[in-house]
Amino acid sequence: MSRPVVLSTRIPGLKPFATGKVRDVYDLGEPLLIVATDRISAFDVVLPNGIPDKGRVLTQLSAFWFDHTRQICPNHVISADIDDIIRRTGLPGIAEQRDLLDGRTMLVAKTEPIPYECVVRGFLSGSAWKEYKTSGTVCGVPLEAGYVESDKLPQPIFTPSTKAQAGHDENISVDEMRRRMKNDALAFDLVHRSVRIYVQAALHAAQRDIIIADTKFEFGLKDGKLIFIDEALTPDSSRFWDAAVYEPGGSQPSFDKQFVRDYLESIQWNKEPPAPELPEEIVSKTADKYREAYRRITGKDLPR
To answer: Structural domains in the chain?
Structure first.
């Protein structure tokens, strides 16, 4: 049985520092408090009803991966335990909202975000497949002929994109990212660590019959050091496929909001606000997929 759906948060005595499609961020001075709600977006539009337990899956799965990859890159997590967060901050407003915030909240170090999404692809899918079909390239980098949709690539490739403040992100080449950053050492570090994190995570997931087709990471700088931030290898930031039914040559069933996208396509929504309300069956199936991703990857059920 899931907890009540959380579409927004209000913490007494605190004002949101930023509100994204899914997360509410509160500035506590040096640290930030990040709360993952159950909001869900599709085609860059937030839908009116949320997905039960989604925010808790995103937070707990991120905490798992941040811990699993900390030897490759330090991360921004101070604590993901609500009682520890209450003790550390001493803020009564957080204590008042304990039950709502439990499992979906992280206290993190503040960093200077690097304005690029670090996408690593191990399989040919999504926008990479569309570009390859058209030009034989991925983010401008030529690939051999003969690949089909969802094929495994010979080795993971790093395909960065800009982080747009409005509208869609822009896929760019590594060389273009390096030119824009004007910092070759930092650009190399982003590529190197991103690929290492992906490879380690993909090996872990493969042992649990999950394929991580691709994923996107975000990084920041703190005291000149590269820090892994935001979320880590969740169904919102990654394509998780079931290895038992994987078959190249078409799209794959995934552990994410594909049910939502497919439904919205089926009703021919114009992908402009306001978004339509989702039927209960679509909400329930999507929630099950998020929970299953958590269970398969961590080896345990989502805490109640």
So the answer is: 1-110 (3.30.200.20), 113-245 (3.30.470.20)
